[in-house]
Design goal:
Elements: E1 2-6, H1 11-16, H2 18-27, E2 33-39, E3 52-58, H3 68-76, E4 83-86, H4 91-99, E5 104-108, E6 121-123, H5 132-143, H6 145-151, H7 165-175, E7 184-188, H8 200-213, E8 218-222, H9 228-236, E9 243-245, H10 252-260, E10 264-268, H11 271-278, E11 282-287, H12 292-295, E12 305-308, H13 334-351
Parallel strand pairs: 1-2, 1-4, 2-3, 4-5, 5-6, 7-8, 7-10, 8-9, 10-11, 11-12
Helix pairs in contact: 2-5, 2-6, 5-6, 7-10, 8-9, 8-13
């Protein structure tokens, strides 16, 4: 059986689909082949999930250039699919399911922009499914209810991800640059939204306070190439322990490998946060404009700690704070956050 998975974006949303697909893989009684449509900038991300045999890149930013749209359609239709599942729920993703010519096209009844008109099957997750991961799992449960029940699909968690040996070797080499043998803290110090980003000085204060509580603390910063300069400034602001700035230095496989060697993560709401959670890393996540019940780090109860802004407008879901720059972080005590981080680090180190 050949399934087309349509989830083009974004970083965290792609990772949110992994548990649902793991459930599908173990529930369908015949060999299942997965082809994934994803934005070209995220092409390497689906490969982290075992069982994805083919990735079709969607040239979103260049769709009308150099026949890119025509080439995408040709690749989409180059094979036959038994089903297409749209986890995105937007006009373009719904259209992709229809263009795939799959006889069975599955999606959310509440899909936006009229995407549901392209589906042959529409499902509504139960009201208690608030988190994006739980909604994706619910879609698989509803669309494949008999198969899931037969396979005993009650317990669903993050599936083990594939970390390439060369990526793990790179992570090991970076770890050797940090002296000491204490626990490793990953720090996601930035985000695409200004309203989701706590300031550099806040992160520096937290890391400094953690270093005072955790002997031999080792710390690396993760992020995109555009965040590297800010990472350098943050690393320079911390003298209590050595901080290695790896923003822009990793691909997705290497980032997963870094998390495989991390004991906890201090982070804004960001794509790396979701990948860390998928790798089983406990996250201490700072939430301002967004709602952690919907897009927070997903995992077993008690694994993660969420620190919410005290702003009464939370969650506003605005890229820029409507009340002024820097409102969300106000009132967040770095010492209290450091205590949460230290607790997670010590607990993870004891288990390792």
């Amino acid at each position: 059986m050949h399934a087309l998975i349509v989830k083009p974006s974004s970083f965290g949303d792609v990772v949110h689909t992994f548990p649902a697909l793991a459930l599908l893989q173990r529930s369908v009684p015949v060999p299942l082949r997965l082809t994934w449509v994803v934005n070209d900038s995220l092409a390497a991300l689906p490969a982290l999930l075992p069982g994805v045999s083919r990735v079709i890149t969607f040239p979103r930013r260049h769709l009308l250039r150099n026949c890119a749209g025509r080439n995408f359609l040709r690749e989409l239709r180059s094979e036959k699919y038994d089903m297409a599942i749209d986890f995105q729920g937007l006009l373009r993703s719904g259209l992709m399911t229809w263009l795939s010519r799959a006889p069975r096209r599955i999606g959310f009844r509440q899909a936006r922009e009229g995407a549901h008109f392209f589906y042959t099957e529409k499902y509504t997750p139960e009201a208690f499914c608030q988190h994006a991961v739980d909604k994706n799992i619910a879609l698989v449960r509803l669309a494949f209810s008999d198969a899931v029940a037969t396979a005993g699909g009650d317990a669903v968690g993050h599936p083990p991800l594939t970390v390439a040996p060369e990526a793990d070797a790179a992570a090991r080499a970076w770890l050797e640059q940090l002296p000491g043998d204490g626990p490793v803290l990953a720090v996601g110090f930035s985000s695409r939204w200004d309203s989701k980003t706590w300031p550099k000085d806040f992160f520096a204060a937290v890391i400094t306070a953690v270093a005072a509580q955790v002997p031999g603390l080792r710390c690396w910063l993760v992020g995109s190439p555009s965040e590297r300069e800010l990472g350098n400034e943050l690393a320079a602001a911390v003298s209590a322990c050595q901080v290695l700035n790896l923003a822009g230095a990793t691909d997705f496989a290497e980032l997963a490998a870094l998390f495989g060697r991390s004991h906890a993560m201090l982070t804004n709401d960001s794509g790396p946060m979701h990948l860390a959670a998928a790798m089983g890393v406990s996250c201490i996540a700072l939430f301002g404009a967004t709602e952690p019940d919907k897009t927070g780090p997903w995992g077993p109860p008690g694994q993660h700690a969420v620190v919410r802004t005290s702003c009464p407008a939370h969650p506003c879901f605005q890229r820029r704070c409507p009340r002024g720059e820097g409102v969300c972080p106000q009132g967040t005590d770095p010492v209290a956050v450091a205590a949460l981080v230290a607790k997670k680090l010590k607990s993870a180190q004891q288990l390792s």
